[in-house]
Structure formats: structure tokens, C-alpha cells
Design goal:
There is one protein chain. By secondary structure, the protein is mainly beta. About 0% of the residues lie in helices and about 25% in strands.
Length: about 200
């Protein structure tokens, strides 16, 4: 039967007496047409047990060594590094990129206002008080003092309006000047005491 072989050259009839005389090929191998030996598939291939032949791994699938039945699917957060057929490996998406589902050939870029770490299934929005103004960010930057980002997923920080300040970095809201103090400029980090 397919997937089995008998290497005896017909010299010993006891080695051909019944089905148990046939030996099963190892995983990743298939029997030759004449069933006298097993042949190996290569990495990036699987053995089609019905057709008894090696087939290339398809889109988003890989095989680091020959496998039986079908290749392995790249999980979410991983990709086959641009290899469409016969991929031998599946690698994690780089920081700043993501793959949301199984069987990805490439990873997608995170958009401005978002970021990701290595092996991400999705991009995360920047936290309030932080921003990302470009694609493929692996981290968000804190708004500088005098600026704020009141919503998550910001692509830029806004300057505090006159009469309001942020004294430190990474702030979501600006605070008003205290009694006896003022700030007439935008984007400032401290208020000035009233004169006299």
C-alpha cells in the first residue's frame, strides 16, 4: 500500500508473505512508485498521502522539515517573511508591524497614533498624553511639557492654551494657572506670578 515499502529484492519469499512484510515510511517520507524504498520531501514541503508525492507549502504555511498531510499555519503575529510557496520558517512580526490572523506572508504596518511590540496580533493606540506621528512605531513618545494629548491614539500633541500649562511630560490635560498667577502664551510649562 502507499506509504509502505519492502526493500527485499525478492530473494526471500517469507519477506513477501503478507501485509506485515511491508514497512511504514517515516513521517515526511513517501513510498516510491515500485514500493521498494521511501523518498523524502524537503523543508518547505509536505507529503500528500493520497497522491503519494511532495507538495509545496501554500500561502501562509511553512514546514521547517518535511511533514505529512499539510504544512503548519503561521499563527497570528507571525509571517513567512514574504515567501509565498515552500516557506521553511515562520517568524515574528517586527515591532511596529502586526498580523491579525493565521497564514500571513507579510506583516502590516501600524498606523500613526499606534504602536506594537514584536510578534503583535494588533497595534495598540498610544495612551493619553503620548503620540506617534509615523507608521511602524514600536513605542509612543510622551508629549513635552506645555503640550497635551487628551485622547488615546494621538498623532501629535496640542499646545496648552493661554492661561493653562502642563509642568511635566506625558500629560493628557492642561491645568489652569493658580490664583495670583497667569500665562499669556500657548504651549508653556509654568505660570508667572502677577506683578506688584
Amino acid at each position: 500500500p502507499s506509504g509502505y515499502y519492502n526493500a527485499d529484492k525478492g530473494t526471500d519469499e517469507l519477506l513477501h508473505a503478507n501485509l506485515t512484510s511491508c514497512l511504514k515510511c517515516h513521517s515526511g517520507y513517501f513510498s516510491s512508485e515500485d514500493r521498494t524504498r521511501c523518498l523524502a520531501c524537503t523543508a518547505g514541503q509536505y507529503i500528500d498521502v493520497v497522491a503519494q508525492e511532495c507538495k509545496n507549502c501554500t500561502y501562509g504555511k511553512y514546514a521547517p522539515q518535511p511533514v505529512s498531510h499539510d504544512c503548519l499555519s503561521c499563527p497570528a503575529g507571525y509571517h513567512t517573511a514574504g515567501v509565498v510557496l515552500s516557506a521553511k520558517r515562520c517568524v515574528a512580526c517586527a515591532a511596529g508591524t502586526f498580523s491579525p490572523a493565521l497564514r500571513n506572508v507579510n506583516c502590516s504596518e501600524c498606523l500613526a497614533g499606534t504602536y506594537s511590540t514584536t510578534g503583535a496580533k494588533e497595534c495598540n493606540p498610544c495612551a493619553k498624553g503620548h503620540f506617534s506621528n509615523g507608521t511602524q512605531s514600536f513605542a509612543c513618545q510622551a508629549c513635552q511639557a506645555g503640550y497635551h494629548a487628551p485622547v488615546s491614539g494621538a498623532v501629535a500633541c496640542s499646545p496648552c492654551s493661554a492661561g493653562r500649562v502642563t509642568a511635566s511630560t506625558g500629560q493628557a490635560v492642561c491645568t489652569g494657572c493658580a490664583k495670583g498667577r497667569y500665562q499669556e502664551l500657548q504651549g508653556q510649562s509654568r505660570c508667572t506670578a502677577c506683578a506688584g
